[in-house]
Amino acid sequence: MRKKSRTVRTFGIMVANPKQRMYVLKKYLARKTADMRLFCFTPSEIDWKRKSILGLHHSNWKWVQHRFPFPEVVYNRCYTTKKTTIQRLEAAIGSNKCFNQQNRFDKYEIYKLLSQPLAPYLPETVLYDRETAAQLLGTHKVLYVKPCCGYQGKGVYRVEAKESGEIHMSQHYFLPQLIAADVPHYQAKLDELLGSARYLIQQGIDLQQWNEQVFDIRALVQKDESGVWSVTNVVSRIAHKGCFNTSICAQICLSEEVLRHLYPQEKVDAFLQSIRDISLRAAETVESGTGLHLGELSVDFALDNNERLWIIEVNGKPQKEIYDQFSGHDAVYKRPLEYASYLHTH
C-alpha cells in the first residue's frame, strides 16, 4: 500500500533587504516542522504579474534562490509604516494570511490607544511643542523627548531641571551633552535639535536601579498555535553605568533574576504576573485599536522606586537577537511558525 504523501505548506518571511534573508531564514529553519517549506524574500522580489516570488531557500544542504508561487502565509519582518505591499499580497493570497501588517508604530498613536484601558501604567505623554516642553519640565523636573517613530533609543533626549535653574540635556547618558541657562535657552536648543520631525514628551520616571544600573523589563507577546496572544518570556536589558538607554546594554538576563536581587520571591511573582496581564491587555488593545493583523509585539516596562510599573513603549518588531543567549529561546522563533500554521488552516 502506497504511503499517503504529506501536504507541504509554504510560508514566506518578508524582510527589508537581501542581506537580511539568510540571517533571518537560518533562525526559523531550525524550528520548522517537516511539512513546512520556508523561504525569505524582499518586497522588490515579488513579481506581481506572474504571481511569483524570487526567494532564498535552503534545499539539499545548499542556499538557493528559487522562484516560488505566492506562499500560503506571509510573516512580515520589514520595519516599515507602509502597508501597500501587504495589502497587495493579501488581495492575492487571501485576507488575514499576512501578519504583522505594519510593525513600525507611532509611539503617540499607541499611547492614545492604551490611555483608556491602561491609564495607571502610562507616564504623562504629549506631542512636543515648545510651550508644553517648558510647562511639563516645571511639573516633572525630568522629561524624555522621543521621536514618534524612533527605535533603539535613537534621537531620544533626557532633560532635567536642576535646582540652580540650569537645564541639562543628554543623549544615551545621564551626563549632560548640553546645558541651557534658562527655559528660553532650553526651548531654543530643543527646537534646533528636533527640527521638523514629530516628537513626543514623556514624563521621566524615578527609575529603580540594580547595582547602580538602569534596567528595563521587556515582555515578548506572541500569538500561539491556537491564534491566541500569550507571553513567551520576560527579559531585562541592563544599561551600562551612567547610561539611561537600555538599547546600549551591558547585559541581558531574565527579569526574574534582576527582580530577585531587589525583592523577595513573593513580590517578584506578583510583579511578573502583573507584567504578563498588562502585556496581554496591551497587545489586544493595540491590535483592535489599529485594526492591524499582528502576530507579535513587545511591551517595555520601567519599575520606579515606589514599586510601580510603567509602560515605556510598545514595539511592533521585537528584536529577536536579545533572546538567543537563553535556554528555551526556541519558542521565540517557533511561535510565529505555529501561528502561520494556525492561519493556514483557518
Top keywords for this entry?
Rossmann fold; globular; alpha+beta; 346 residues; 5-stranded antiparallel β-sheet; D-amino Acid Aminotransferase, Chain A, domain 1; Dna Ligase, domain 1
Structure notes:
The structure is a single chain. The protein is of the alpha+beta class. It folds into 3 domains: 9-99, 3-Layer(aba) Sandwich (Rossmann fold), CATH 3.40.50; 107-121 and 207-345, 2-Layer Sandwich (D-amino Acid Aminotransferase, Chain A, domain 1); 125-203, Dna Ligase, domain 1, CATH 3.30.1490. It has 8 helices and 20 strands. The strands form 5 sheets. Strands 8-13-9-10-11-12 form a 6-stranded antiparallel sheet, sandwiched between helices. Helix 6 (255-262) crosses helix 7 (265-290). It starts with 8 loop residues before the first strand and ends with a helix. The mean pLDDT is 93. Keywords: ATP-binding, Nucleotide-binding. Residues 111-345 form the ATP-grasp domain. InterPro entries: ATP-grasp, YheC/D.
Largest sheet report:
6 strands, antiparallel
Helix content: 25-40%
The chain-level structural class is alpha+beta
**CATH H level, superfamily name of the largest domain:** ATP-grasp fold, B domain
Tally of DSSP helical segments: 8
CATH topology of the largest domain, anyone?
Answer: D-amino Acid Aminotransferase, Chain A, domain 1
CATH class of the largest domain: Alpha Beta
Shape: globular
Low-confidence stretches: none
Number of strands: 20
Domains, number: 3
Mean pLDDT: 93
Q: In percent terms, what proportion of residues is strand? A: 25-35%
Largest sheet: spatial strand order: 8-13-9-10-11-12
Q: What is the H-and-E element order?
A: EHEEEEEHEHEHEEEEHEEEEEEHHEEH
Organism: Paenibacillus oleatilyticus
Keywords: ATP-binding, Nucleotide-binding
Pfam families: ATPgrasp_YheCD (PF14398)
InterPro entries: ATP-grasp, YheC/D
